[in-house]
């Protein structure tokens, strides 16, 4: 079999040579996949407008020597509200960049595909990036094997007083003496983290998070993410 079809979300693309592009997909069938779109940078190319970041597409791909070759593209869904809103675009770029970094090629990632597609759809349709974002980060980290311990102290202590990225979750006063990366954790933040670790995306869409609480929770998640994945996002460096 010299060719195959995929349904995928376009994570990124880069120019190669004078007229080609290397496109990275998160696919439903094959996980993360790289393929070349030949002559796609030409104005006359039929694929030029289809291979845009975030698009959900169906592609016919021919098996090649170094990279497989994209022979045809059909757009299934675009996310126009994300593209035209700079705040939504920048936040979505962080989500997509992290997904591309955390997922390995030739790895089964159907749950990640469903999570990313659901997140893109929710951001595009509802725009509630704060609540949807918390939902995404907790779930993508869990799927990647980095689940926060939130139900009780990581060492079994009784009263929770803080959070430690290196220890993997919430900690008691005894654990505070065993680590140097203790983060204060308010009761509202702990409650929110516990709720978002179990709720559905359809519930997260509707929720509003106070700014102070959002800042605390985002800081905890970011420190946990960076410690365990060692991934620092280029898109986080962009400010407006």
User: SSE string, helix = H, strand = E?
Assistant: EEEEEHHHHEEHEHHH
User: Which strand order does the major sheet show?
Assistant: 1-2-3-5-4
Beta content comes to 15-25%
Number of domains: 2
Rg value? 20 Å
| CATH homologous superfamily placement of the largest domain | Recombination protein O, C-terminal domain
Quick one: overall form?
Answer: elongated
Structural class based on helices, strands and sheet pairing: alpha+beta
Give the second-level CATH assignment, the architecture of the largest domain: Up-down Bundle
Largest sheet: 5 strands, mixed, barrel
**Annotated CATH topology of the largest domain:** de novo design (two linked rop proteins)
Mean pLDDT equals: 92
Just give the CATH class of the largest domain.
Answer: Mainly Alpha
Number of helices: 8
Amino- and carboxy-terminal Cα gap: 48 Å
Low-confidence spans = none
Secondary structure: number of strands:
8
Task: Label this structure with key terms.
single chain, 240 residues, 24% strand, 5-stranded mixed β-barrel, 2 domains, elongated, alpha+beta, OB fold (Dihydrolipoamide Acetyltransferase, E2P)
